Prior knowledge:
The structure is a homodimer. Chain A is α/β, with parallel strands linked by helices. The first copy, chain A, contains 6 helices and 11 strands. Chain A has a 9-stranded mixed sheet with strand order 5-6-4-3-7-1-8-11-10, sandwiched between helices. Chain A has a two-stranded antiparallel ribbon with strand order 2-9.
Amino acid sequence: MGVVRFQISMSLDGYMAGPRQSEENPLGVGGLALHQWVFELEAWRRWQGLEGGVVNESSQTIEEARANAGATIMGRNMFGGGPGPWDEPAWTGWWGDEPPFHTPVFVLTHHAREPLEMKGDTTFFFVTEGIGAALAQALAAAGDRDVVIGGGADTIGQYLAAGLVDAFELHLVPVLLGDGARLFAGADTPSVEQVRVIEAPGVTHLAYRVAGRG
Amino acid sequence: MGVVRFQISMSLDGYMAGPRQSEENPLGVGGLALHQWVFELEAWRRWQGLEGGVVNESSQTIEEARANAGATIMGRNMFGGGPGPWDEPAWTGWWGDEPPFHTPVFVLTHHAREPLEMKGDTTFFFVTEGIGAALAQALAAAGDRDVVIGGGADTIGQYLAAGLVDAFELHLVPVLLGDGARLFAGADTPSVEQVRVIEAPGVTHLAYRVAGRG
């Protein structure tokens, strides 16, 4: 049986995105700096269907994040804010024709909608019954593989607070954003154990296990 | 010339102390967990005048924190909340007869007081003219050695926000406190560079340099 896990980039001061997030700037002011380490990686580019890129100490964590992923859960904002009503039949999210998930993706929403099958084995399912129902469906779809909580920070925080996460990896980026969206904002606080640390250019990868799970 | 630096333990959710700090519980609820990694270290015990203890991957960071320290700066709460008025002549703080600093210590306060000479080369000087004056005096006392901002989190935050810190080390502890005292709480945000990472039992040591300094 797989585990329920997430991975996310975090600033030194604990933010997943900078202040003043908007449709035009979903990462918030300064938030792009949280992701610079990943954009040039060969492993990440390959996942996006792109060629080239560098291989370094971060490559392993990207390969691992993809490996063994059997299903993905995300909030509706991560599926796509979109140009029109996000749940219009014509709107397929902002991940393009071939989204980089390559698994069933369960989107938390209040709007029922038919499943949306994309290229490359990604199908979006829209779940209106809450995080528990989405997890049950994702576990069933994943079988022996992992369920990845894709984001955003709010969605991850809800699963953490509900005690439904087994393991996670933080990509700690040496930047201070001063304000923005926090991951661990007043959530109930599970006990965690440090599993592994990787120092890489411009980022440190910190893997944790939630005590008593997995 | 030395650098101006600090080191501090931080929870995964960015706290230096838990919620509801008080004179009886200065670390706040759950805050003791931030310091478990250090208490059993031989290097730390030796610094406190104690025998025994373990040697592990954390020992190096403790040795380095002590090495080359020429002066220390701290807030009045770190000097000692104390049983009576903290600035009574009879009150010598809560560090005992032989405090573990072994340097001149500049205490930020609004109450002028004569210097207090302790055993083991620690002398407390009480500075009423603010953080800039304390730093100037500490730099003069340190000579070619480093000035260590000892704490607490408020004092460190003031020096960070004023752009007076050259380097720092975070001891990131796998615990979630949910609430408490944050280090990087709305401070102006310097650019930092990752210098070194050490994975150790129950803690990860992360060293940073402030860009353009030191």
